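Hey, why these numbers?
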Amino acid sequence: MLPFVLLALLEVGLRIASYGGETPLFEAPEVLRGDYLVPGQNVGRRYFPRERFPPSPPGDAFLAVKPAHSMRLFVMGESSAAGFPFPANGTFSRVLGDALSDILPSDTVEVVNLGMAATNSYTIADLADEVLEQKPDGILIYGGHNEYYGALGAGSTESLGSFPGFVRLYLNLQRFKTFLLMRNAVNATMAVMRGDAAANQSDSDASRMESVVRDQRITLGGETYRRGVRQYDSNLRSAIGKFRRAGVPVFVGSTPANLRDLRPFGSLRAPLDSSASAVFDSAKAGLARGDSVSASRQFALARDLDLVRFRAPSEFQPLLKRIVAETGAVYVPAAEAFSSVAAYGIPGNDLFLEHVHPNQRGYVILAKAYFDEIEKAGFLGRQSDIARLASWDEYARRMRLTDLDQRMAYHTVRTVTTRWPFVPLAAQLDYRGTYRPVNLLDSIAFAASRGAMPWATAKAMMGGTYTARGETDRAVAEYEGLIRDQPRIELAHRLAGRALLAANQPERARPFLETAFSLSPTGFTAYSLGVIAMQQRDPARGIPLLERALKLTPDMPPALYQLSLAYAVNRDVERARALALRLAQVEPRFPGLAEWLTTLGIVR
């Protein structure tokens, strides 16, 4: 009995000391006043305990108390689910959320993205119970490419063996601080035995692909290959089973990849006719002859023969169909959707940025694939108005991906594709250390892509630059991107309104300023809205706003002047004079004040 008591006391002590830090799946940011939850930014430490900057999900906020009339969906998966290499506005989940919000006007639609780079089905299974606590109406799963080299994957440096059930137990035990203490002690001992003084993994996304790979030669049908298949099967069944037993619909997508324009990363040297590279070259030749049917089969085979398995093998697709049929989930034909629109019916660089991550068009296709299956499911019992659905080109526009965002994505991709496995180890480049930006936009994008500047700061900086140049529409586009990402933060709305006021476009500015004022009233927004109202000859609205501006920012010279004018328009001459005199004390040289004092009959 005593050992259990001592363990319990140790656990309590470690929890009080917050040993190992906290890794909640969801947290309540103070800036959102506790009304909303967001995915925890440290949850990735569960799977990457030795990284200083582990991957984390996008910051999608959802109401802490679920509304009565709502549709709450959670997206689970890896980096493609998380929208890599784009900022959160580039995720397919936000495109899907826009479409569902349009056709479900009576419901609060929440699509919360839990995708994390370099994770796999182990993470999906591990998070299932915590996701259920948030009362989901549906689960969307998109993953499969990381089964071999993702966290704890079959061919990764962190693999824990051949039994997925044991690995899931290991992940569950990590919730106990005592287990974390034991794990860290074992890891430290092993590092000393290996002479590995620098046990920490690299924090860059570029080197992560190198550092996670233990087995660079996973042959088709070999033992490690079969372990990856069993892992995918077992973990998906575990996660889907939990959701389905709770009565939650699950939509699982097949995983398209770049087949046509990505040469296999690893290839056997002999026999030549069965090597991945030889089959790929044969597919290219067939396509050049116009035989796209044969080429399609060979491109898929070349992918399957690739020894370095950063792309899900063909076998996963029929396996997934069996899993969803046996568990009562819904199959989402995402791979089929990509093939249906790709050149020659074979996905390539027209839809992908490298091996598995879609471009902007690809992410819209992915969103539509899930939307179509949710529509077939009757929108989960909600009353819909499908006539309100916009075009998918319109939803692509609403992603608010500007030239700055696209350039950030470009640099992120180049950082990855100039390193192994895209190039031989001997030919690797230090892209971040050698690239020289060509202009201001490129410089800001490059800094943001390598983590030297937060994305929001980059957007605000570029918006300010455009405003100063008089490029108002481009400035507003940057601020609209910020608003799309964090609609409940006042600053971006205010900055957009300010840019439009500077361009003498008060009518366009007003909605932004009104939203900013409703989120967090400031003297500037109250003043600006008051002036707009007075310009529209609406003193009943303008005067209270100008009065509010002075309460929020006492002795604001422009507000004193405009409110004095407003009182005069409203025939309240005494108040007009009092404010004019107050302005004369605060800023006696305010433009137009001398003439206004004379008009009011005040001689100084």
